[in-house]
């Protein structure tokens, strides 16, 4: 009889602990936003904040959390909006190679391999699966934008030939710039000035790369804003005139474009000499750069459109 009583006590204790644990989980993991049929939970927001601060090599303290919380929420909303569209259009692409390369690049920053970076996430109590799904979603979004707008990307072959000939004729002026960017979404109100001031302060405090991870809305943010080598002939006159006044290591003032601002850092530059065997490669690069510029434009416009047409409830 005594054994039965003791057994009953143990069973009751286990049930009580489970109820308490579940209650704790329910109170701690709340829905904080609805985006159509997608939700953002407090767990996801906490994980996003920790991911951004970790990748930016920032301490996870209350001051940094307060600074980044709103940015983290906006990134999650963008992620959910993109995910909705991917489901809607049934985008199923094998991005395993691109994902693997992304994780290898990330791992190399921490002098480890992909399994090592997973362990680092785990040791910092960051949900690696959520991070991985965000990367997959971004690659699928790029595929969606390409499928949706590829027929609208019409490049003038004659214009490309003229640009190529100009490059050949003016080789002495041909430059390539290795750039990094921070892309900020603007609200077109008084808050924009404070946002830009805050980002500039963080650039001075923690460096451009970490500030890009922390603040940039561009897909390049996961690479510290690095967008690689860009041919001078592929740049707009406005950006080219700014870069011509910069030295390697310099950071530009914000460049305003409708509902966003871009801050550039000149990582490196070089003169390019062209011979006949490079012409086809150069032509392909011009086509690729122009195509990517148009796709980025369509991507930003389409994202703004669906955001404006989606019921987003912040709780």
Based on the model shown, name its key terms:
315 residues; 3-stranded antiparallel β-sheet; disordered N terminus; alpha+beta
What do these coordinates show?
- The structure is a single chain.
- With 315 residues, the chain is of the alpha+beta class.
- 60% of the residues lie in helices and 14% in strands.
- It is built from 11 helices and 7 strands.
- It has a 4-stranded antiparallel beta sheet with strand order 4-3-6-5, sandwiched between helices.
- It is globular.
- The N and C termini lie far apart (53 Å).
Count of helix runs: 11
State the separation between the terminal residues, measured CA to CA.
Answer: 53 Å
Strand order of the largest sheet: 4-3-6-5
Which residue ranges are poorly predicted, with pLDDT under 50 across at least 5 consecutive positions?
1-27
- Please tally the β strands and state the result: 7
Rg of Cα set:
24 Å
SSE order: HEEHHHHHHEHHEHEEHE
List the helices and strands and how they pair.
Layout: H1 2-28, E1 31-35, E2 38-41, H2 42-55, H3 62-88, H4 96-109, H5 114-123, H6 128-149, H7 157-169, E3 175-185, H8 191-206, H9 208-215, E4 226-231, H10 237-243, E5 255-257, E6 260-271, H11 279-308, E7 312-314
Antiparallel strand pairs: 1-2, 1-7, 3-4, 3-6, 5-6
Helix pairs in contact: 2-3, 3-6, 6-11, 8-9
Q: Brief overview, please?
A:
60% of the residues lie in helices and 14% in strands.
């Amino acid at each position: 009889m005594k054994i039965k009583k003791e057994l009953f006590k143990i069973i009751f204790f286990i049930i009580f602990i489970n109820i308490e644990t579940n209650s704790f989980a329910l109170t701690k993991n709340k829905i904080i936003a609805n985006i159509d049929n997608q939700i953002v939970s407090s767990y996801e927001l906490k994980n996003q904040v920790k991911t951004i601060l970790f990748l930016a090599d920032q301490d996870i303290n209350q001051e940094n959390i307060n600074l980044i919380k709103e940015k983290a929420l906006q990134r999650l909303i963008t992620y959910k909006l993109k995910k909705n569209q991917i489901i809607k259009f049934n985008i199923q692409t094998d991005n395993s190679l691109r994902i693997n390369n992304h994780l290898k690049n990330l791992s190399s920053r921490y002098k480890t391999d992909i399994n090592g970076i997973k362990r680092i996430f785990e040791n910092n109590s960051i949900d690696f699966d959520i991070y991985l799904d965000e990367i997959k979603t971004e690659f699928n979004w790029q595929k969606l934008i390409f499928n949706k707008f590829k027929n609208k990307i019409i490049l003038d072959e004659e214009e490309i030939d003229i640009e190529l000939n100009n490059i050949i004729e003016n080789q002495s002026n041909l430059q390539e710039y290795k750039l990094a960017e921070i892309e900020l979404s603007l609200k077109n109100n008084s808050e924009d000035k404070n946002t830009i001031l805050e980002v500039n302060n963080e650039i001075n405090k923690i460096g451009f790369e970490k500030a890009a991870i922390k603040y940039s809305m561009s897909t390049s943010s996961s690479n510290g804003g690095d967008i690689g080598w860009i041919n001078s002939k592929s740049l707009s006159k406005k950006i080219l005139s700014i870069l011509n006044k910069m030295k390697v290591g310099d950071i530009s003032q914000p460049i305003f474009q409708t509902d966003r601002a871009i801050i550039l850092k000149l990582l490196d530059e070089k003169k390019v000499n062209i011979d006949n065997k490079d012409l086809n490669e150069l032509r392909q690069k011009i086509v690729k750069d122009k195509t990517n510029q148009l796709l980025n434009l369509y991507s930003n416009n389409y994202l703004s459109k669906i955001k404006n047409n989606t019921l987003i409830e912040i709780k």
